[in-house]
TrEMBL record:
Membrane topology: Multi-pass membrane protein
A Pfam family assignment: GIDE
Protein name: RING-type E3 ubiquitin transferase
Localization, UniProt: Membrane
A GO molecular function held by the record: ubiquitin protein ligase activity
Keywords, sorted A to Z: Membrane, Metal-binding, Transferase, Transmembrane, Transmembrane helix, Ubl conjugation pathway, Zinc, Zinc-finger
GO biological process: protein ubiquitination
Amino acid sequence: MSSSEQALVSLLSQFALSFDGAVLGAALAYAAVRTVLKLTASCSALDELRKAPYVSVSDLRHIISDGDSGKSESDHKLVVVRGTVEARSSVEGNWKSVQPNVLISQESGDRAVIIQRTQMCIFNEWKGFFGWTSDLRAIFGRTFRKQESTSFRTVPFVLVDEGHSPYSDFVVVNMDGSRHPLPLTTVYHQLQPVSATPYTFLQALFGHEYPVGVLDEEKILPLGKNISAVGICSFKNGVPVIKSCKDFPHFLCEMTKDQMILDLVFKTKFLFWSSVVLGSLSVGVLGYSVVRNWNRWKQWRQQRRLQDSGNDSTMSQLDSNNIPIYGDFGTASDNEEAVDPEDEVSSNVPDGQLCVICLMRRKRSAFIPCGHFVCCERCAMSVERDSAPKCPVCRQQIRSSVRIYDS
């Protein structure tokens, strides 16, 4: 791992563990809330799927009547229809059926209603000898970047009962607004390598990206394939039409109703235990952070009280002994602290016994819990007043300091 990546990982870890893990706890809580929302949606979809009727195309008219077409989309109920894919032009029974409106795969020659062709160009991003080579992965490994272009073609199609011809009953599949995955079949998949040229060698040498291959893939929804359609069914001009439901994870799939129920049950269990684990971790981390910050605040407040009481006792003692403190009139300023005679600046103090912060006074205080004896009493008190006090030597979090007296 390079130095820049190490610095980035260190910065992210320090940010996640800042405030004694409060940021990490908040991130875990956010993930737990998102998981609970997904769990709620999955449970709702599972309940709707269990209540949905599972019918064939010929039995669909017994479930949905023409009077239901005037209802709003929210009033329609979910229906699971099992049928065979067929082009709409072949079942309409008019002059359009003379020339069926179907798509032909260029590679396999299969007849289909949906063809998705993807061409992906893969580029090599190795940085070369004259590029950025501080990372060992840039020398021994290769990273790839992909540029993808997809063409999607579809024709109107319907679902019919398997083995029934001519087709008297059918349901039209409305694909408008659907973003659900489709049960496509891969008929062509080939990776064609790009031949290297002298220009490619120069690109690799100076760290520029260069193409290494082209991935060509074709997926189709062929005629005669048995699929299940899950959605809202209604009648349009006397013809049943099924449309996708945005709140349901499936629309067209190869699974039956029982298989979809098992899939949603597994997903629901996974989301449930994920929400339990993430919620428990977030509560534990946030609770630990709250307790730690509360204890630190109480210690800081107690130290401030002790310091204020110590300053007040020193001032009263000096006043009782009639010792002038600062100024020409024998009064001390409110913002200044009393000076210990033994802690005054001395030119006879060896270098090894000077405070590491001011380099003027003798070392008098040790930090707790690290135990470093490196500061004078004034500098130690100034370090303790910081919002996050740390030892100037080991950078460890400190709780307080103690005055060391020579015997």
